[in-house]
Specification:
With 318 residues, this protein is α/β, with parallel strands linked by helices. The protein is built from 11 helices and 12 strands.
């Protein structure tokens, strides 16, 4: 639960450089409140666009604005000052793949990734259509200068990990080969949702990478509770296809948090330490804010979180 609001003094927060864009826009200290972990955000954004471009390796996924159209995403990305974005294939299919590429080029937006759906691993008759969808995503990424495509591996049979892995390797193989020919990384996400994936942690992901040739999406909001997780991030190393960033409010027994992923800065995870582990592993790609943002979008909170992440990446010197 959030702590009670109180007076926030300058001397208490000298390290919070993420506030500088808002101070420059005239947002006063009195307009701030505290999250549970003691970090501030504006109660109400002043409604002006972020005038300075954000860090080129900072991205925002279209999943964070789940119910928005591609047109709405474009408008917000531009207003926020983003230079790199993550796409969802359903949105750009509705808009038109070629139109989407043209619009992104016009706005000079780079890509962190395009997300596609999971494979129907237990029904190979579905694979050709699902592969075709992945190949379209690869073409979009290649047309915009590179990045990754990824999706969850798919639901597997119970207690049949090796068979599930073999099925995924067969399903994804033409996509991996096509991606290599186009300079696009093809990756999978080890999500905690069993209806989406039979792979749930980085340790098993490394095994699936060896079997399938696909790279790994390191999603901090999914892997944060794994044993020795920062070491596992370093071990994934060159096979990191994308790093995704979110936060989780865990809470206590007396006051449990929601336990679901949210915007960086809204929870308790030591996000900077996770990013340091990825950087130490040699990762040089985008850091994408990604979580399932269903329903109304708190645009002020998203802008504040982008500012925090922008400051963090500059502080890390990437």
């Amino acid at each position: 639960m959030p702590s009670r609001s109180r007076q926030v003094c300058d001397h208490e927060m000298p390290h919070l450089t993420c506030l500088s864009p808002y101070r420059a826009m005239g947002v006063s200290r009195a307009a701030l409140r505290l999250f549970a972990n003691g970090t501030p955000r504006p109660l109400a954004f002043v409604g002006r666009a972020m005038t300075n471009p954000l860090h080129p390796r900072l991205s925002l996924s279209a999943m964070a604005t789940f119910d928005w159209t591609f047109e709405q995403d474009l408008e917000f990305w531009t207003r926020a000052g983003l230079r790199c974005v993550g796409l969802w294939d359903r949105k750009i299919e509705a808009f038109g793949f070629e139109r989407a590429v043209d619009e992104l080029k016009r706005r000079e937006l780079a890509l962190s990734c395009v997300i596609f759906g999971p494979f129907t691993l237990l029904d190979p008759s579905c694979w050709d259509a699902e592969r075709a969808s992945v190949l379209r995503c690869i073409d979009v990424v290649q047309a915009l200068g590179g990045g990754a495509v990824y999706g969850p591996p798919g639901k597997g049979a119970f207690d049949s990990w090796d068979d599930n892995a073999a099925r995924y390797a067969e399903a994804i193989a033409p996509c991996v080969a096509y991606g290599e020919s186009r300079g696009v990384r093809v990756a999978f996400e080890p999500t905690l949702r069993p209806q989406m994936s039979f792979v749930h942690n980085l340790r098993d992901s490394l095994d699936l990478t060896e079997i399938s040739g696909a790279d790994i999406v390191v999603d901090i909001g999914n892997c944060y509770a794994e044993r020795d997780v920062r070491n596992w991030i370093r071990r994934v190393g060159a096979r990191i296809g994308l790093v995704q960033v979110s936060d989780v409010t865990i809470g206590t027994i007396a006051t449990p948090g929601a336990g679901t992923r949210g915007l960086p800065g809204s929870g308790e995870l030591p996000i900077e330490e996770f990013l340091r582990a990825a950087i130490a592993a040699g990762y040089a790609g985008p850091f994408e804010i990604e979580f399932l943002g269903i329903g109304d979008v708190d645009q002020d909170a998203v802008l504040a979180s982008l500012a925090r992440m922008d400051a963090m990446l500059h502080r890390l010197g990437v």
